[in-house]
Amino acid sequence: MKTIEGFNIKFNFGKLIKVSDLIYFDGPLLSHCMSCKGENYLFYWVDIDETFNRWLVLRTDILTIQQYLDKKITLHSVLSNPNDGFLYMVDIDSDAVYHNTKAIQVNDLPEDYLPELNSYYTFEPNDDIDLSGISQKYSSGILELHIGGRDVKYGSIPLNKFAPIIPKIEDIRKAISSKYIKRIKRSVSGNEKDKNKSITRELDLDTQYEFVYSMAGSIRIILKPLNTQISFIRTYADDFAEEIIKLFESGYNKEDITRFSNAYDKNIIKKYNDFIYFLNSEKLSFGLKWCNVNSNTSIHKKIEFKDTEKILANLSDFEFNNKEEIVINGHFYSLNIKTGNYSFESSEGDDFKSSGFFDKTRKLLAQTISFNKTYQVVIERKSAEQIGGKEKRVDTIVLFNEVNEE
Fold first, then answer.
1. pTM of the model
2. Using CA atoms, how far apart are residues 216 and 41, in angstroms rounded to an integer?
3. What's the burial of 222, exposed, middle or buried (CB within 10 Å: 0-12/13-18/19+)?
4. Quick count: other Cβ atoms within 10 Å of Cβ 69?
5. Residues 179-215 as b or e (16 or more Cβ within 10 Å = b)
6. Is 188 helix (H, G, I), strand (E, B) or coil?
């Protein structure tokens, strides 16, 4: 390769995180990378020999990258006007080890190291990032939220589209977390109190996330669990992330929606429906990806805008069915012995009321009821509700006994 004049520097470009390959042909030719501080760099391939691939590196900004992708400026202009006033050059071997890192002036470059003057963007960027590098950096699982769709550009999104997403996702996370933690704690033996306390603390940290940084390439939000303990086996954080992703997968199949609702509750499905409705109305796509290099776990799901209509149709057909037993003391204030209808209100200091029917056996005994007496009743309540519809509720008294008041 050609000898290039410059100043040797000690900067580890290998620590930068790749955001996207902007030009790719039998391998990356122009890549966008970021530092942990959010600084933007472009890597431009210029040369090769038996040992190294040579790259020019420049520090730039997201606005310049967007202007290049929008065909407003050329790659020649970008490389000729680096933010630092000079470029960097690095030779990378087949083991991804960096050598001969130099700071160089643009004027010292060979003519064939720069793109043509008319080098406007004519490609499609590769919109996937390598989460494993970020996971390895933090020795933790990493959750990526990926937003795309109408009006979402490389590194920018209208605020009215972006602002509602985080609280909606957080509502879903909290709802799943509450049920997930209770389920795991029930599996712990009751006499292992110290262990139970430790697991509760671990679960709290594994099911809550902190913001690491955001990245361009559509819009990406990078999160990690609060838990800082390093584990090389599958963790609660891995399992919990998988549960969240299962919810987003469930909308493609009515049976999966039912299974998830039974495992958690209908309120989570409502929150999911609200989020999908938002994606549909704003013409957005949404992806979730979890990567944990320590436990060798990688799972993902992307909902394309074109899929949101199908998911909403599945959810609109889904009916929540619930059955519960209510035991309460109170008074009857309406009764129809012929039809078996009743109205009942609590005497326990709350505003509970119930109207419904006696079952077959209790209907025969209804004639013994007195309005001035207190009864303990057992009510079997069945409820059904469709997404976006009103709850249908049926109460049936299956047992009642007079309460002796002293």
1. 0.70
2. 12
3. buried
4. 21
5. ebbeebeeeeeeeeeeeeeebeebbeebbbbeebeeb
6. coil
SS3 content of the chain, % helix, strand, coil (to 5): 35, 35, 30
Q: Which two tokens stand for residue 229?
A: 């303990």
CB 378 within 8 Å of CB 329: no
Instruction: Yes or no: say if 302 and 163 are a contact pair by the CB < 8 Å rule.
Output: no
* CB distance 161 to 168 below 8 Å: no
Q: Provide the residue-wise pLDDT of the chain in tens; the chain has 406 residues.
A: 888 989 999 888 988 888 888 998 888 999 999 888 889 999 999 999 999 999 999 999 988 998 999 899 999 999 999 989 999 999 999 998 999 999 999 999 999 999 999 999 998 776 667 788 889 888 999 999 999 999 998 888 999 999 999 999 999 999 999 999 988 887 775 555 555 667 888 899 999 999 988 887 779 999 999 998 888 999 999 999 999 999 999 999 999 998 998 888 788 998 999 999 999 999 999 999 999 999 999 999 999 999 999 999 999 877 766 788 999 999 999 999 999 999 999 998 888 999 999 999 999 999 999 999 999 999 999 877 666 566 688 999 999 999 986 5
Looking at CATH, the fold of the domain delimited by 321-402 is given as OB fold (Dihydrolipoamide Acetyltransferase, E2P) (2.40.50)
Q: How far apart (Å, rounded) are the C-alpha atoms in residues 270 and 261? A: 10
* Phi, psi (deg, nearest 5) at residue 50: -65, -20
Contact of 113 with 79, CB cutoff 8 Å: no
* Assigned token pair, 3: 């000898």
